[in-house]
Amino acid sequence: AAKGSGRGQFQFFSREMNAATHERLLLESRLWQALEQQEFELYLQPQIDLASGAVIGAEALLRWHHPELGTVGPDRFIPIAEESGLILPLGEWVLQRAIGLLGHWQTIGLGHLRLAVNLSARQCQGHALPAQLDRLLAATGADPELLELEITESAAMQDPEHSRALLQQLRARGISVAIDDFGTGYSSLSYLKLFELDRIKIDRGFVKDIETDPNDAAIVSATIGLAHALGLEVIAEGVETAAQADFLRAHRCDEAQGYLFARPMPAADFERAAGATLDGPARECLVLS
Ligand code: C2E
Ligand code: MG
Ligand code: MG
Ligand code: MG
């Protein structure tokens, strides 16, 4: 009987694995083509100033419109792109599109908005990034002060000395740097004094149970205090309820981002919503569809 159930289990797992492998193969086989076929799109999620409720900018979040699988989120294909090396051309496409948007915003009255872009660990290695950014900024006339680059602490800590020099080069150009998913990378806090930073992004994992879990509440309020004491700003991600926003506002968190305010959306929708908020309160105008 034990043998029988063992075999059944093996078959169960192997069927699951086949489904996962099948999806992976579907994604992997088209990934390189997808860039040429223009199947990628940058969605934008508004970032809100908690004190005033105003939209101060957005985070660019990559989507893949796969012909068979529909719209696929980055958690499913970024790891494959990292392994296959496509992340470098894909990351460059993201930067080109994002910096292009910043340039466009200057011409449509949205020249005050900041745009945050996620960097993968691979993009931070080597020495290509600063020249790439210089080229894209010069080509579009975008203001580097309105570009923010997000890097996770684990990516930054793969080679701390290299990252320190890279972040210094970015800051010398006026580009902002945010540490993404703060507190999830199992690294010590010592990098906070090693790196020149502008902002800390509190991970959704700490925000989720902020009202019910005293440990999460303590971690979030201590992180806000730590950031401010170091002269850094703080943004909380994954804010879904008014109570979470109230807690963050009461603890002087600077900015927030999450489904409470708006989900990631196509650039045209963001531009319409952000344009509309020029004559009204942010929240009301960002309740979409
Ligand atoms: P991230 O940078 O931490 O982005 C935040 C993620 O949380 C996004 O998931 C966003 O859609 C989601 N989110 C925002 N507000 C809420 C909320 O209130 N509730 C919940 N449940 N989720 C919320 P998404 O778009 O699936 O992106 C996942 C990750 O993929 C990102 O995490 C980032 O690490 C990576 N990523 C996205 N775009 C890019 C890119 O262009 N390049 C690179 N290298 N990585 C990217
Ligand atoms: Mg991010
Ligand atoms: Mg994050
Ligand atoms: Mg996160």
Essential attributes:
binds ligand C2E, binds magnesium ion, eight-stranded mixed β-barrel, 289 residues, alpha/beta, 51% helix
Biggest beta sheet summary: 8 strands, mixed, barrel
The general outline is globular
Percent of sequence in beta strands: 15-25%
What ligands are attached or bound here?
ligand C2E, magnesium ion
Give the proportion of residues in helices: 40-55%
Tally of helical runs: 13
Strand order within the widest sheet? 1-2-4-5-6-7-8-9
Mean pLDDT: 91
Q: How far apart are the termini?
A: 55 Å
Radius of gyration: 20 Å
Structural class: alpha/beta
**Helix/strand order, N-terminal first:** HEEEHHEHHEHHEHEHHEHEEHH
- The counted number of beta strands is 10
Model regions low in confidence, pLDDT < 50 over at least 5 residues: 1-6, 279-289
